[in-house]
Amino acid sequence: MSFSISTFFVFLLLLLLLGGIIILIVLFRKSAKQPEKQLDKPDELAETKAKTIQLKLFHKEKETSRQFLLPLQIQAMERLILYLERIQPQSLVKRNLPQSGNLRSFHLALLQNIREEFEHNLAQQLYVSEKTWQLISTAREELIKQINLAVSNLPENASAEQLASILLTLEISVTQKAIQEIKLEFSNL
Question: DSSP for the chain?
């Protein structure tokens, strides 16, 4: 019986020793992992600070860009509205009506004026939406089409005054729609 009690105590002592070793190993592993986490935290902190600085710089750059672009956008919208007003049939007739009354030269002058005004404002498309620019282009094309149609419906011996009187009655609705779109875009700046 003493043998079995002493074996039991030895076995119990071995279990305690083994348990102590396991506890020491677990504690050692935890302490070994903690410094790694502590090393990660400064890296994570530095990374977070770097991202915050990048975001602040990006925001500041975007704001600076907006401050620079806003006046250009406003100027472009002003110029495009002026273009649309200048190609209204009534404005075109006033600026291009020749003294001689020659229909052909008046017709060509109207078309040339519309094209020159458009080409002069081509770069403004950078500052307006695609929809707005498309409406402006459509207004130009519609006006040219209406002028050519009016000329084709006149007799060959018609005068410039006859074409002018027809053009003065034209209303190009796309032009007003384009102006409204520019105003809407301006209000959303």
Answer: -HHHHHHHHHHHHHHHHHHHHHHHHHHHHHHHHHHHHHHHHHHHHHHHHHHHHHHHHHHHHHHHHHHHHHHHHHHHHHHHHHHHHHTSHHHHHHHH--SS-BHHHHHHHHHHHHHHHHHHTGGGGGGS-HHHHHHHHHHHHHHHHHHHHHHHHS-TT-BHHHHHHHHTT---HHHHHHHHHHHHHHHT-
65-97 confidence digits (pLDDT tens): 778 889 999 999 999 999 999 999 999 999 988
Task: Assess contact for 87 and 66: CB atoms under 8 A.
Answer: no
Return the domain boundaries, the chain.
Answer: 51-187
Q: What is the pLDDT of residues 108-150, one digit of tens each?
A: 999 999 999 999 999 999 999 999 999 999 999 999 999 999 9
Q: How close are the terminal C-alpha atoms of the chain, in Å?
A: 98
